[in-house]
Write a structure and sequence with these properties.
The chain has five helices and five strands. The chain has a three-stranded antiparallel sheet. A two-stranded antiparallel ribbon has the order 3-4. The radius of gyration is 29 Å and the shape is flat. The model has no long low-confidence stretch (mean pLDDT 81).
C-alpha cells in the first residue's frame, strides 16, 4: 500500500509561499485587527464605565432581562440616578376651549449603577471565608 500526501509540498514550504503571505497580509490581518480593536475597546468601556444600560449589563453578565428586572426589584442591582427634564406643553381644552398648560417630567433611560455592583462584589469577596486575603 502506497501512502503519500495529496500535497507534494511540505507544510513548511507552503507556509512561506509568497502568495499565501500576500493574502494574509493584505486581506486577513487588517480585518482581524479591526475585529480585535473593536472587542478590546468595548471591553475597556464596559470595565471602566460607572453606569451601563440594562441590555449591556444582562449581556455581559450572561443573565436574562427578566432576571435583571427581578434583581432590580429585589435590590440586588441598583439603578443609577438619571437626569430628569421638565416638559411644558400648551394646549387648548376641546370641551371648554380654554388654554391649558401641562407640566411633565421626562425621566432618562434607566442605567445600572455598575460602580456599586463592583463594590458590592468586592466587599463580598473580602468577607468570603473561602478566599484568603
Amino acid at each position: 500500500m502506497h501512502t503519500e500526501n495529496a500535497n507534494a509540498q511540505h507544510a513548511f514550504d507552503l507556509a512561506q509561499s509568497p502568495d499565501l503571505l500576500t493574502t494574509i497580509t493584505t486581506a486577513l490581518l487588517p480585518a482581524l485587527s479591526a475585529v480585535i480593536n473593536d472587542a478590546v475597546n468595548r471591553a475597556v468601556i464596559f470595565n471602566t464605565s460607572p453606569t451601563m444600560s440594562k441590555d449591556d449589563f444582562a449581556m455581559i453578565n450572561g443573565i436574562s432581562k427578566s432576571l435583571l428586572e427581578k434583581w432590580i426589584r429585589d435590590g440586588v442591582v441598583l439603578l443609577a440616578p438619571t437626569p430628569t427634564t421638565t416638559v411644558v406643553r400648551n394646549s387648548t381644552c376641546r370641551k371648554t376651549g380654554k388654554p391649558r398648560t401641562d407640566v411633565m417630567e421626562k425621566h432618562g433611560n434607566a442605567l445600572i449603577n455598575v460602580a456599586a455592583w463592583r463594590e458590592k462584589n468586592r466587599q463580598h469577596a473580602l468577607h468570603c471565608r473561602y478566599i484568603k486575603p
